[in-house]
Amino acid sequence: MRAIEMTEGYAAVYGRTGQKVTRKFRCTTGARSGRVVANPATCNKPINFKKSQKLAITKRSRPSMIKYKAARAKQFNPASKRLAGVQKIRPRKTRKV
Q1: Which residues pair with 36 in a beta bridge?
Q2: Of 30, 74, 32, whose CA–CA distance to 51 is shortest?
Q3: Separation of alpha carbons 26 and 62, rounded Å
Q4: Which residues contact 30 (CB under 8 A, 6 or more apart)?
Q5: Any residues with CB less than 8 A from the CB of 73 and at least 6 apart, and which?
Q6: Do the Cβ atoms of 22 and 96 come closer than 8 Å?
Q7: N or C: which end of the chain has fewer CB within 10 A?
Q8: From residue 52, how far is each of 26, 45, 55, 69, 81 by CA, in Å?
Q9: Dist. CA 29–CA 47, nearest whole Å
């Protein structure tokens, strides 16, 4: 695989890993288009259908628990608060002449 193939198909973003803010990648192409992953090589890997079905069943069985845990993490995890500040798009400062 060429170096140019490795750099296409993703955009750098920030994400939360436990209590830390880490650099992650949003896939723009491939089977995981739109998903945020830790490694850009993951964007073009084949999907494990058995794992995806198992996760879908788990999410359907306890949707309220998933919402509750996500909301709680966003409210109380200090990394989430830092991440919200990092992800904001800020206007560029223009130089006054």
Answers
A1: 26
A2: 32
A3: 27
A4: 9, 43, 44
A5: 16, 80
A6: no
A7: C
A8: 19, 14, 5, 20, 30
A9: 14
Q: Which residues pair with 21 in a beta bridge?
A: 16
Closest CA to 5 of 47, 46, 40, 48: 40
Joined together, the tokens standing for residue 12 give: 């750098």
- Please give the Cα distance from 94 to 97 (Å, whole number): 9
Residue-level pLDDT at 7: 53
DSSP state of 47: P
Best CA proximity match to 14, nearest among 97, 82, 60: 82
Residue type at position 16: R
88/17: higher pLDDT: 17
- pTM for this one? 0.70
Instruction: Please check the confidence at residue 94 and state whether its pLDDT lies above 80.
Output: no
Tokens of 6: 């490795």
